[in-house]
Amino acid sequence: MHTPDLFAPLPDDAARLAELRQTLHEHAHRYYVEDAPTIPDAEYDRLFKELQALEAAHPEWLTPDSPTQRVGGNALDQFAPVRHAVPMLSIRTETDTTASGAENFDARIRRELGLTEADPPVQYVAEPKFDGLAMSLRYEQGVLVQAATRGDGETGEDVTQNIRTIGQIPLRLPKDAPVVLEVRGEVYMRRDDFETLNERQRQKIAAGAKREKTFVNPRNAAAGAVRQLDPAIAAQRPLSFFAYGLGEVTPPEAGGPSFETHFDLLQTLKSWGFPVSDLVKKGQGASDLIAYYESIGAQRDSLGFDIDGVVYKVNSLALQRQLGFVTREPRWAVAHKFPAQEMLTTVLAIDVQVGRTGKLTPVAKLAPVFVGGVTVTNATLHNEDEARRKDVRVGDRVIVRRAGDVIPEVVSVLLDKRVGEPEPFTMPKTCPVCGSAAVREEGEADHRCTGGLFCSAQRKQAILHFAQRRAVEVEGLGDKLVDQLVDRDVVRTLPDLYRLGWRAQAEVLAISQEQLATELDAAKRQELALSTLAEMDRMAVLSAQNLLDALQKSKLTTLPRFLFGLGIRHVGEATAKELARHFGKLDAIMDASEEQLLEVADVGPIVAQSIRAFFEQPHNREVVEHLRACGLTWPEGEPAERAPTHLSGKTFVLTGTLPTMGRDEAKALIEAAGGKVAGSVSKKTSYVVAGAEAGSKLGKALELGVPVLDEAGLQALLQGVAE
Ligand code: IVH
Fold first, then answer.
1. Is residue 215 domain-shared with residue 236, that is, in the same domain?
2. Nearest 5°: CA angle at 269, between 264 and 272?
3. Mean local confidence (pLDDT), 487-515
4. Which residue, 179, 144, 174, is CA-closest to 162?
C-alpha cells in the first residue's frame, strides 16, 4: 500500500514558492538596478516574509539563489583564496591630465593596428573609471556561486557572503544567460550612502562605541565592507555595483554567447540584470575621447559616486584580440585619470582667520601640494569641534581634499606618521587680530570675535565683500590693497573708499570731513585720492587712476548688488534679489518690520531678524547715508506685484541627473514659482524629482508614498498644467 509522504511539499506551496522568488527577483531588480520600483516597500516586505515562512516550513527547498539568502552565513576567520579562471588584468594609466592623454592612446592604437591617415577613425567605448574595487562574479547555471576580489590578479579572495548582500547584484540570471559566466565590475559606495553611513558611525561614536570609526572616503568604506568577515555587518554597509567586462564565459562553440563589440556585451549584461552605467558611451577617434573626458570631468562633482578618471576601450572585440596584451595590461584599453582630488601633505601651522562677520576659522597652513588641479597651501578646519574631531596638529601628515570649486579641507590625519606629541589645537580666547574677546554662543559651532568693525580683519573682509564682482564691483581692489588701506587708516568704513585721503586732510586742516566736503571740488578730490593711493606699496600712477575709474564706475549699481554688498548676515545674493524685488526701494527695506520682511519669499525669522538688527544700528544707517552722499545710486522700482506662486507651500527634493535640466536650474525654476527645494525626503515633501542614477531618496519617497516626478512631470508642474 502506498503511504503518503507527509513531508513531501504540496504542489501548491512549490508553485507559490517559485512564483514568490521570481516576483521578488524582479522587484529587487527594479528597486536596486533600475531605481524604478513598482510596488511599495511594505508590499515587498510582505512577499519577502511569505517566502521566508514557506522556506522555514520546507528547509529542503532552500537554494542559495533565493532572495532570502542575501544575508546569511556565519562570520569567517579569513577569506578563502580564489584562483581566477581568467586573470583580472590591470590597465595602463595615462596620467597626462590634458586632452593629449586621449590623443596618445588613439595614436598608439592606430600605430599598432597599422592604420594610416587614410583609414577611418577607430571605434571606441568610453566609460567612467569608477573609484571602488574590482570584483569578479561567477555564475554557474545562472546562479551566483562565487564573488572574488582582484587580489594580485591571479588569486583573489572569496567574498561571496558579503557580495550577496548587494541588492544590485543579481543572485540568479535569466534563462538566456550562459552556463558559465564571470562578470567583472566595480563595487563602490554612492556618495549619499557614504554620508549616511558616516553619520551613523558618528552617532555610534558619540554614544560611546569604542571600536567604531568614520570612513575617509567612499572607496575606503566600500573596501572595508567587502573585506568584512561578518556578513551581517557587511549587509549594513550600502554598496553598489557597475559591470564593465567579462572573465570566463562558456565559449560560443559550447553554446555560449558571441559578441562582436564591447558595447553589445555591456548591453547584454544589462539585459541579464547587471547595472551598467548610463554614462558609458560609444565614440570614434581621438576627438570623441577628448570630448568625453571633458564632459565627464565637468560632471564629476555632481555625480552620485566618485570616479577618478575615464577608461577608453577599443569597441571591436576582434580588434581587441588583434591588439592583445603587454605583460599584464591589455593594449586595447587605457585609464585616463583626472587630477587627483586627495593628496598627502604636511601641516606647517594652524592659523585662526577672522571672517567678515567675525567668525573665527582655524586654517591649516600646508606644505604646497597640487590637488584638484591647483596648488593648495591652506585648508579649512571649519571650527573648533571639527579641528578637534580630526585632531589635526602642527607637523602632522594629512590627506587634503579639493573637489571642484569647494574650498580645500583636511580629510584626515595619518596618526601613525605623527612625530612626538604636538599640542592639540585650541581656539584662542581672544581675537588674534584685534584682541577682543572671542565667544562661542550657546548652541553655535563657531567662535566669533566681538570686536565688530573695531576689528580690522572684519573691516577688511567687509570692504572686500562690498567690492567683489557679485556685489558693487570695484575692479582692481584686491586684498593686498585693502590690507594697506585699512592698516594705514585711510579706509575705516565703506564710504571711505569714495573719500580717499579725506581723513588725513581733515585732520591737517582741523575740520570735519563734512566741512572738507564743501571745500573740495571734483578736481581736488581726484588729486587727493591719487596722491593718497600713490603712497601705497606697488601702486603706480596708472593703476591708481584705474582704481579711481573703477570706483567711479561702481557708483552706478543695482539695489540687489548694493544690498548684498552691505554684508548683512544671512543676506546672500538670492535674498538680496528677493528683497529688492519685493520692496522696490532701499528705504522701504530699511524701515520694514519683521512681519513685513517675513512676507518676502526666501526670508524666514532668522533672516528677518538679522535685517532688522542691521538697520536698527545707527552706524549702519549712517554708512548707507554716506554711501549715497558719495554718489552711489541705483534704479529703484515699485514694490512687486505678488510673484507667481502657484507652487508656494510645495517642497521638492531633487535626486539623480535629469536629462536636460541642471540641478541648479531646476532649483531656480521651482523657487521662481514659489516652491522650496529641500535636501532630504520626509512626510512633508510634496514631490521627489528623480533623474538617472537616482539614489536612496527615491526609495524613501516610495516608502513614504511621496509622488515622484521625472523631468517632464516637473516641467508640467512648473507650467501649471498638472496638479
Ligand atoms: S576595465 C582589462 N573599466 O580600474 C581591463 N576598469 O586597472 C580591466 N575600473 O582596478 C579593467 N572603472 O577595477 C575597467 N570602466 C572600467 C573601470 C575599471 C574602474 C578599475 C578596475 C581596476 C582598475 C584598472
1. yes
2. 130
3. 93
4. 144
Percent of the chain at pLDDT above 70?
97
- Least confident segment among 64-73, 132-141, 249-258, 392-401: 64-73
Q: How far apart are CA 128 and CA 524, in angstroms?
A: 63
305 lines ligand 1 (CB under 6 A): no
Per-residue pLDDT of 355-384, as tens digits, reads 998 999 999 999 999 888 889 999 999 999
Q: Domain for residue 713, yes or no?
A: yes
pTM: 0.66
Cα dihedral 688, 689, 692, 693 sign: negative
* Residue 282 and residue 231 in contact, taking contact as beta carbons nearer than 8 Å: no
129 is catalytic: yes
What's 668's domain CATH number? Answer: 3.40.50.10190
**Residue of 88, 129, 269, 308 best suited for mutating to test ligand 1, as the one with most atoms within 8 Å of CB:** 129
- With a 6 A CB cut-off, is 308 part of the ligand 1 pocket? no
CA 184 to centroid of ligand 1, rounded, Å: 9
Rg (alpha carbons) of the chain, rounded to whole number: 32
Question: Is 86 domain-assigned?
Answer: no
Rounded-to-integer distance, Cα 417 and Cα 389, Å: 18
Beta bridge partners of 347: 366
Looking at the structure, tell me whether residues 547 and 569 fall in a common domain: yes
Instruction: Note whether 323 and 359 are same-domain residues.
Output: no
Q: Is the shortest distance between the CB of 306 and ligand 1 below 6 Å?
A: no
Q: How many residues does the chain have?
A: 723
Please tell me the distance between residue 247's alpha carbon and the centre of ligand 1 in angstroms.
Answer: 13
Q: Is the CB of 219 under 6 A from ligand 1?
A: no
CATH number of the domain to which 487 belongs = 1.10.150.20
Asked whether residue 313 carries a pLDDT value surpassing 60, the answer given is yes
Q: Which atom of ligand 1 is nearest to the CA of 135?
A: 13
Q: Whose CA is nearest to atom 14 of ligand 1?
A: 244
Q: Find out whether the beta carbon of 311 lies less than 6 Å from any atom of ligand 1.
A: yes
pLDDT value of residue 549: 96
CB of 130 closer than 6 angstroms to any ligand 1 atom: yes
Residue nearest to atom 13 of ligand 1 (CA): 134
CA dihedral 326→329→334→339, nearest 10 degrees, is -120
Confidence check: pLDDT of 72 > 70: no
Domain check: are 309 and 254 in the same one? yes
CA of 334 to the centre of ligand 1 (A): 9
pLDDT at 4: 47
CA 338 – ligand 1 centroid, Å: 15
Tell whether 172 and 318 lie within a shared domain: yes
Give, for ligand 1, the residue of 182, 240, 241, 244 to mutate: max count of ligand atoms closer than 8 Å to Cβ.
Answer: 244
Distance 330 CA to ligand 1 centre (A): 11
**Which has more pLDDT, 99 or 486?**
486
Q: Where are the beta strands (DSSP E) in 153-280?
A: 155-157, 180-188, 240-249
Instruction: State which residues form the domain around 712.
Output: 651-718
CB 522 within 8 A of CB 509: no
- At which of 356, 391, 417 does a domain end? 417
Please give the tally of structural domains in the chain. Answer: 5
Query: Is 215 a domain residue?
Result: yes
Residue 517 and residue 540 in one domain:
yes
Mean pLDDT of the chain: 90
Residues 124 and 241 in one domain: yes
CATH number, residue 318: 3.30.470.30
Q: Return the pLDDT at 1.
A: 43
Indicate whether 672 and 576 sit together in one domain.
Answer: no
Per DSSP, the residues of 293-321 read HHHHHHHGGGSSS-EEEEEEEESBHHHHH
Catalytic residue among 49, 129, 204, 365: 129
262 C-beta closer than 6 A to ligand 1 = no
Atom of ligand 1 nearest to the CA of 131: 19
Q: How confident is the model at residue 95 (pLDDT cuts 50, 70, 90)?
A: confident
| Lowest-pLDDT choice from 3-7, 125-129, 287-291, 646-650 | 3-7
Does some domain include residue 668? yes
Average pLDDT for 306-323: 96
Last residue of a domain, one of 390, 417, 444: 417
pLDDT, position 644: 59
Q: Could you tell me if the CB of 222 is within 6 A of ligand 1?
A: no
